[in-house]
Amino acid sequence: MPSTLVHDFETPWVSSDPARLGCALDPVAAAGEHSLRLTAAAGAGGAMATFTPGTPSDLTPYDELRFWLYADQAADGSTTRPFLLELGYEDAADAAGEQHRWLVPVGRSRAWEQHRIGLAAERRSSVTRWLLRCHTDRPFRALVDDLLAVTENPLADVEVALIELLGAPVALPGVTRVPVRPAAVGATALTVDRNLRFRKGNQIVVEGGASPGVLGRHAVTGVSHDEAAGTTTLAVEPATAVAIGSGATVSVTVPVVVEEAPHVPPADRPDLPDPVLLLALTDQREEPERAWNIPQRDSFRAEGDRTVCSIRPAARPVLLEYQVLAAATDRDQSLTIRAAVLGRVGVDTGLRVNGTVLPVRTLLPPPLTERDRAVLAPVFLHVGTRVELGARREVPWVRHGEIRAAPLSTPDDQEGIVLRL
How far is the C-alpha of 345 from the C-alpha of 367, rounded, in Å? Predict the structure, then answer.
């Protein structure tokens, strides 16, 4: 499981002092429809916004927190630009005095920035409360969004995100929300008005009626038409687990099937659903154009009178190539699926993986050596991701250094270089 959503900020957190720290929903968001807007008045230092989950959260499977922050001023922890916020949580098994709190830097004002915090050394089996605490008395305004717990597996995470994106419902012409007649528990056949677009191999979903929501998912194993009665009967498996009442509908879905090379044309694969989206990883390699050698810094925290942070080597950029092939017996369905793929994935949308939007673009297909017959038309996608190369290690964070130079006989240093990090 690559990630879990800790909080989507579609509901506000609770302020410990609303007069000094306002908490409200804001329509400007990094993900979803809302973010949490924090409005700190002068003297709000120490005021907190908190969230208590209904049941304690076990974050043991995850080694990193990720969230997005937008602030109206930069904050690097210096005297002139102090840290604004501190993110933390409490665990039911914490020892006396044990804390899990991190300072949140702001590199650029009025811009969304994603922050990462390492959890590998933290107690996190029973998280009972989350908090955002004001770390300064100066007024500020900030937006917080999309708090995730993550364990990164770059290739698997991209594939999971692609399957989720491409597997979203597609409204196929003629076979979407078709009224289905009532059926008893255990029925192995479903009846609709005569419809020649249903086929053996369809994967269908039954929804609605007296029980809202999904009533069942089935594979169509046979289709028969009764012209006199004006009906089409779908033989399905498994049998219906619940009764299907009046008002229910049936829709053909487009499952995503991940395959390994060598690719076999769908026409030679009677085991495949019809329609289907075939997804295959066809290449993976380094992408030096997106590389840099600057170490990553995150997980800032106060230790006594100093600030420490975690560093690790720069991640290695990797390019993944996927082949996406829409296969359907019905031509209208095939074109509809292809249009849905092109509308969901592209340079203007990217691919959201564990809270981060990865670059995506479509490519020209490989050259064909012969064109003596019609060929399938897959979509080729390039997805840019990164592979971490080392574990975090904690070091002091140097914010201000001075180098001075002068002759030894000079009583006072007259020249110097000041380096601010």
Answer: 23
